[in-house]
C-alpha cells in the first residue's frame, strides 16, 4: 500500500479508505472501516474511520449522523 512517503493532509480519506482491500480489516460496512495498524512490534492498534470524509467532530452537521452512529456502533 502506498503511504509511507505520504505528504498530504488526510491519510485516511486519501490512502486508507481507497486501499481498504490491502489493509488488515476487522470490520467494514457502507459507512465505516476498521483495521489493524501494524505500526509497531509490540502493539497493534485498531483504527476506526468513517469512509466518508468528516473533517472534525467539531464540524459535524445533522447529515453526518448516519456516519457517526455507524462509527460508534463499530467501536462497540
Ligand atoms: Zn478525510
Description of the structure:
This protein has about 80 residues and is of the alpha+beta class. It has one domain (about 10-75): HIT family, subunit A, CATH 3.30.428.10. About 20% of the residues lie in helices and about 20% in strands. It has two helices and three strands. The protein has helices at about 10-15, 65-75, and strands at about 25-30, 30-35, 45-50. The chain has a three-stranded antiparallel beta sheet with strand order 1-2-3, covered by helices on one side. The protein is globular, with a radius of gyration of 13 Å. The chain binds zinc ion. Zinc ion binds near residues 10 and 12.
Tell me the overall shape: globular
How many beta-strand elements?
A: 3
Strand order of the largest sheet: 1-2-3
Low-confidence stretches: none
Q: Output the radius of gyration.
A: 13 Å
Count structural domains: 1
* CATH structural class: Alpha Beta
Task: Give the N-terminus to C-terminus distance in angstroms.
Answer: 28 Å
User: What is the SS-derived class?
Assistant: alpha+beta
In terms of quaternary structure, the protein is: single chain
* CATH-derived topology: HIT family, subunit A
CATH superfamily: HIT-like
State the helix count.
Answer: 2
Distinct compounds present: zinc ion
Fraction of residues in H or I helices: 10-25%
List the secondary-structure elements in sequence, H or E.
Answer: HEEEH
Strand proportion, as a percent range, falls in: 15-25%
What is the arithmetic mean of pLDDT? 90
Tell me which CATH architecture applies here.
2-Layer Sandwich
Major β-sheet annotation: 3 strands, antiparallel
Amino acid at each position: 500500500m502506498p503511504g509511507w512517503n505520504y505528504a498530504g493532509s488526510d491519510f485516511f480519506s486519501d490512502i486508507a479508505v481507497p486501499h481498504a482491500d490491502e489493509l488488515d480489516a476487522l470490520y467494514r460496512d457502507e459507512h465505516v472501516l476498521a483495521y489493524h495498524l501494524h505500526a509497531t512490534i509490540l502493539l497493534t492498534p485498531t483504527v476506526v474511520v468513517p469512509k466518508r470524509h468528516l473533517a472534525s467532530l467539531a464540524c459535524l452537521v445533522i447529515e453526518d449522523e448516519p456516519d457517526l452512529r455507524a462509527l460508534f456502533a463499530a467501536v462497540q
